[in-house]
Amino acid sequence: MKPLESFLLSTTLAANSISIADENSAAANSFKTKQLLSGSNLFKLLFGVKNILLIIIIYFTLFTNPLNAKNCLSFLPYGFNESYVHLPQSASFCVKQGKTKYTYKTDNYGGRLLNNNNANNKIQIFGDSQVLGLDVDNIEQHYLNTLYKKSNFIIYAAPNNGPYEVINFLNQNNKILQKKIIVTFSFSTDLYRILNYWNPKNFVALKDYELDEILENPFKYRLIVFKNLLLNKNFTLSRYDNKKMQDLFLNSDQDEFYNNLTKYFDELNETATNLDIGIDFIVTFPYWVYSIDKKNNKLSLDKRLSLKVEKLICNSFRNTKKISKILVSQVPETLQLKDLTFDKRHLRSKKISLINFRELCGIDTLK
Predict the structure, then answer these.
(1) Angle of CA points 200, 164, 88, to nearest 5°
(2) Exposed, middle or buried: residue 315 (CB in 10 Å: 0-12, 13-18, 19+)?
(3) What is the pLDDT of residues 128-170, one digit of tens each?
């Protein structure tokens, strides 16, 4: 393989991971970016940015076979519109992960449609890639189907779509909201996305207006990722593994977490009040409360971590008039490695079961 082709291939593989994995804190972003860009800085030094972009354009023009959305994509397309992250609008496409293909159909706002043939009503669901269902091809496979069996789902969710991005969507598109919606909080990453310095631009390669073109010409996605790596010093494809995520959480200020969580929840509750909507609030435990035993293909619960997460959940969230139902995912002591999704950063939907917040925490919770 030629050096340029090898370079393109390795970066393309990394680029694919950003589409199916939206992990890690913005707190660690600058360090990761410096580490990632060290190689590209050398490349820029030798060739110059303009020449690199020219080489890439020539490569894709001459050597890449034209593809479109009729073929399965090797990445999940999603874009940022300066307010929230969403999938392509009014689109149908499929994404291939490993040997498995997943179909997507979206509405005018980029909401993923999962339909139940026996249901007439619909329920709107908001969040990130965990609730989007990276391993889900039909509504029966989704973990929320056990609780909302008589509903069709419209899932307004995407990788790197944080809690405040969800609130932005609710405020900007309030005319389409139903009186009762579901808002999810993926503790794995949303814990860090509520920090002041979180910025989706550093994790999302595409602008929302580029999505339609990407569906028609998927190879351009790689070019856009290259451009972000070269020209946006904060953009990163790097993702922490379980151990680093665990260390990051344990070494962080728990009081700061608590303050940010309560601030976010208060704003969500205020939004629900202003828009006069009811919210079922669903929290999923982080995948990184498990340690990976690759030798035995097992996941073992770290009870110290789990208790710290539980304490934050119980002390930060509360039932209100507008958020009357809060559900939390259960955490078995052991799981199989295959119970993680293809990217190893999400629990498979079929492994998520929910219990009432009060059952987990008790009626009265104190900091």
Answers:
(1) 55
(2) middle
(3) 999 999 999 999 999 999 999 889 999 999 999 999 999 999 9
